[in-house]
Amino acid sequence: FPSQTITGNFASVIHGLNVNHLTDQVIQRSKRMILDTLGVGLLGTSTEICHKVIEYSKIYSSDTSSTIWGHSDFRLPPLYAAFVNGVAVHSMDFDDTWHPATHPSGAVLPAVIALSEAFSQKKKISGLDLLLAFNVGIEVQGRLLRFSTEARNIPKRY
Predict the structure, then answer these.
(1) Which CATH number is 45's domain given?
(2) How many domains does the chain divide into?
(3) How far apart are alpha carbons 154 and 151 in whole angstroms?
């Protein structure tokens, strides 16, 4: 596609991803990444910064809500639930990382879970759909990092 823009090509690749692209190895690694992220996220719910973010977020409400990890009696609109859970994941900096420096799962998993909870009972997604969404999020993040000259220079700056 020589006449296609970089952005158009990027969008085509991402749009074309489906569950058939999830190899056994990708599925196993994804499950490990998800379990690790949930673990550090649950641990992070006990941090002072997470408590502050939860208190701040209590002003938001919606008919659609998602779980705040470690707080079964407290729910928020998906956007804020993803934010609070993302803060919990990264609050102690134990979440996964890759090069160039980024924390892929902490940015993706809270959003994917919050959105999956927001679907109506009639449109519940499968575990495989969740794995696909997680991997698409990781793929988008990785490709955007590769496009970024700023990200490539991080190791040289530190």
Answers:
(1) 1.10.4100.10
(2) 1
(3) 5
pLDDT per residue as tens digits for the range 19-37: 999 999 999 999 999 999 9
Total-model pTM: 0.86
Segments forming the whole domain that contains residue 68: 17-152
Q: Following DSSP, what letter does each residue of 5-33 receive, concatenated?
A: -HHHHHHHHHHT--GGG--HHHHHHHHHH
pLDDT tens digits, residue range 32-90? 999 999 999 999 999 999 999 999 999 998 888 899 999 988 899 999 999 999 999 99
Residue in the block written with tokens 């296609």: 4
Q: 49: Cβ–Cβ under 8 A, 6 or more apart, which residues?
A: 87, 91
3-state secondary structure of 75: strand
ω before 155 within 30° of 0 (cis)?
no
**145, 136, 134: which is closest to 38 by C-alpha?**
134
Q: At residue 69, what are phi and psi to the nearest 5 degrees?
A: -60, 135
